Amino acid sequence: MNDPTDLSKQAPPEAGGRHVCDTPLYKLVETRHGLFLANPGDHYIGRALVEYGEFSELEWKLLAQLAPSGAYVIEIGANIGAHTVSLAKSVGPAGHVVAIEPQPVVFQNLCANLALNGLANVQAINAGCGEEASRISFPRIDYTRPGNFGALPLDKLPADPGSPLQVPVRPLDEMIDLNALYLIKIDVEGMEASAIRGARSLISTHRPFLYLENDRIEKSPELIDLIHSLDYRAWWHMPRYFNPENFAEREANIYGGTVSANMLCAPRERDVTAPDLKAVENSTWHPFSHKGEK
Length: 294
Known about the structure:
Blueprint: E1 18-22, E2 27-31, E3 34-38, H1 45-52, H2 57-63, E4 72-76, H3 84-91, E5 96-100, H4 104-116, E6 122-125, E7 128-129, E8 134-137, E9 166-170, H5 172-175, E10 183-186, H6 192-197, H7 200-206, E11 209-213, H8 220-229, E12 232-237, E13 262-267, E14 278-279
Parallel strand pairs: 4-5, 4-10, 5-6, 7-9, 10-11
Antiparallel strand pairs: 1-2, 2-3, 8-9, 11-13, 12-13, 12-14
């Protein structure tokens, strides 16, 4: 998620989705994809659910094609489950979703949303994913204040061995053992390459689709070269945050022209085409540094 500026000066959103009840931190909202406890102070995910009754729906329209009935999916960086719930409903009772989220308070919110939607086909794990095993010490965050709680860079958190909020970081290969795997979705604020290196065995064995955030220009070359080294092809997917046909039917666009920078990646041996997307060919090229180019 791109880090917004001057969040402390932004007014709380007006009602968009149907609010069932409020607490000091959360609103319970009826959305396009189910019931959600959402933090309206979270500028992107929480506020979008409250304001529009959906989050990044234009991204979901592509993800929906990668989550057929019966599929097994892993989501690294699930946050509060804005897409986890949709993934779980899409794969259905015969499918399975592993949702991994490191932030303890956000993880609680994720579990609440899974329970609210009665999803028994999701395994939620409070952990981070990396190349090597370690631990993260989380600072105490005031989630009642405006912020972008989907943009916490784990690799930049200060070491605090005395913090009671200790969360493990483990390679995905050591965390999960599946007989099948159709998709890995990763949104971990610049640590995507580390998460992939920790999942080399799963990727080599099952050859799943990969859907990765890639919005850090300085880290993009490493990530793209890694994807190509795994014998994958990739395409840029740049969905806008604002959906004019949003569930709440609100016309006001609070996100302007803001887009996500993601990559759809497919094993080279699969017969996959993406005619509407730009192929990722040059690891030194990034859409954020070449705005306006096709």
